[in-house]
UniProtKB/TrEMBL annotation:
A Pfam family reported for this protein in Swiss-Prot or TrEMBL: HD
Protein name: HD domain-containing protein
Domain HD per the UniProt entry, residue ranges: 40-144
InterPro entries: HD/PDEase_dom, HD_domain
Superkingdom of the organism of origin: Bacteria
Length: 171
């Protein structure tokens, strides 16, 4: 499935990404793998882009700036969770808190919506749901992108191809 922003929306997205890269250690996340062969950085950018797209498509009443920033920082945990280390055993349950701590430390103007998005993006695995629409959009986009990254290259073509054709025909 393809989705595109207008040139103006793309510029806004990439300007926001560039600003965050300058004021944080977000680029370090290139070093860590997330799902399959997708880096944490690439995953975060994909999730943020898809969150932005969904919010615009739904005409959702959200703070777009907070949505994009919170989504870009949702996995700002800055470690390789695949390493055999006792502290990584429960990564799925704990990384959202660590990502929020890192983001709050590195980005002084992080707002309440962004913090809530980062802390609650693993709902329902973490039991506290998001307080804001921005967080709900992030939860959905993160699950969709994570699922696609995880199964990419693992499903046989006879399963993948009909599904892609069906999606395209429904657009």
């Amino acid at each position: 499935m393809t989705y595109h922003l207008s040139d103006e929306q793309e510029k806004y997205f990439y300007d926001t990404l560039e600003e965050l890269c300058r004021q944080s250690r977000l680029l370090e996340s290139h070093r860590y793998m997330q799902h399959g062969d997708t880096s944490v950085f690439r995953h975060s950018v994909s999730v943020a882009y898809f969150s932005y797209y969904l919010a615009l498509k739904m005409n959702a009443p959200v703070d777009i700036h907070s949505l994009v920033r919170g989504a870009l920082l949702h996995d700002y945990f800055l470690y390789d969770w695949h390493e055999k280390d006792a502290s990584h055993k429960w990564h799925g349950f704990h990384h959202a808190k660590k990502a929020c701590e890192n983001a709050a430390r590195d980005i002084p103007d992080l707002n309440e919506i962004e913090k809530d998005m980062i802390k609650c993006h693993m709902f329902p695995l973490n039991i506290v749901p998001p307080k804001y629409m921005e967080g709900w959009i992030l939860c959905c986009a993160d699950k969709i992108c994570s699922g696609a990254e995880t199964v990419k290259g693992r499903l046989p073509e006879h399963i993948v191809l009909p599904w892609r054709k069906q999606i395209r025909s429904e657009l």
